[in-house]
Amino acid sequence: MTTTLTPVLTANWDRPDSYTLDAYGEYAAAKKALGMDPDAVIQAVKDSGLRGRGGAGFPTGMKWGFIPQGDGKPHYLVVNADESEPGTCKDIPLMMANPHALVEGIIITSYAIRASHAFIYVRGEVLHVIRRLHAAVREAYEKGYLGTDIFGSGFDLELVVHSGAGAYICGEETALLDSLEGFRGQPRLKPPFPAVAGLYASPTVVNNVESIASVPSIIANGADWFAGMGTEKSKGFGIFSLSGHVTRPGQYEAPLGITLRELLDMAGGIRAGHQIKFWTPGGSSTPIFTDEHLDVPLDFEGVGAKGSMLGTRALQIFDETTCVVRTVLRWTEFYAHESCGKCTPCREGTYWLKQVLKRLEKGQGTEDDLTTITDIADNILGRSFCALGDGATSPIHSSVKYFREEYLKHFEIGGCPFDPKKSTLWGEQ
């Protein structure tokens, strides 16, 4: 538990030139890493306890260690910068304000896994970020930090910034790899996993932007320094994105294990005159929490023990003026639109969830419809080809669990209780 922020990745964000190489520095961590044995770099990341910052929380060093060595195949590093989860907004500002942390992390990671080619797969819509990444990569090439014989170590690395086409499904690592190869972005059957047969059927590591950008500070300051923050099983710091009905929304870099109550204290609390109603601990694909969860430690274990997931630490805050049913409908419309259609449970399930929720939101449903949407969600959960389907069920199950009465109120008054034409926040019609 802490009320202290730990600005590392965000330390220089207030500098107008933070995105330049002059402001960032001379890649000292990369130079140090390239003087180490690659296996020692992997061990340092393992010892730090860094877990994937893209949502799943898998140990980063362990993931690197899965790459087979001496197999005679090329190895690849792919950075997943296809940030699309509703409410998630940490990687985009990170790449805008501090792209060189990512580039330096890519050099270190590629060296550790013996990869001579790396790719940054970034959303095509964020043109400003793409331009900034290209500028950062160009600066690194000009300084000799990328290309051949980096720091005289004999290590060569080519880095490519690749623009995606704006599909949410390409945030799933195997769909991203298919897209990167020029195919339609759809998830692959696993196994084989990317560590064995990833990009171009070769061993590949796919990591989130924040995961890779955290590596230089671990190498520079030591594994113990990083492990000294956070909690026993969720070590280090992370960027918490507060959005919605909060006084000062933004990015708050803090140790894992901090609580929403503590973050809200630093963010000025809920907007004046209102109180929190529900919130997401890790974006819309994680089960929602309510005001009773304000003191839950925001780490992988603490959030999981209370029935949700830490995910991407996208803390969407909603006050008492928000209709839960309408919010869940909006999220479900997103998942139905972004389903790639490859598997039946997700393709059909998200469509029918959307149809029933529309009826519920208009007050035209019945209590039996609550059973229907939870049954549909049950038939998607664990049966879809990838995690998109599972994520779509999270707001369904959790909203019915915590706000069943609000769903019922829609039936009673024949519309949304938050619609002034029907009633005023649960008042009389």
From TrEMBL:
Residues 325-370 form the NADH-ubiquinone oxidoreductase 51kDa subunit iron-sulphur binding domain. Its EC number is 7.1.1.-. Coiled coil: none annotated. It comes from the Bacteria. The keyword Nucleotide-binding does not apply. It catalyses: a quinone + NADH + 5 H(+)(in) = a quinol + NAD(+) + 4 H(+)(out). Gene3D superfamilies: 3.10.20.600, 6.10.250.1450, NADH-ubiquinone oxidoreductase 51kDa subunit, NADH-ubiquinone oxidoreductase 51kDa subunit, iron-sulphur binding domain. Transmembrane segments: none annotated. Signal peptide: none annotated. Belongs to the complex I 51 kDa subunit family. This is NADH-quinone oxidoreductase subunit F. It comes from Nonomuraea wenchangensis.
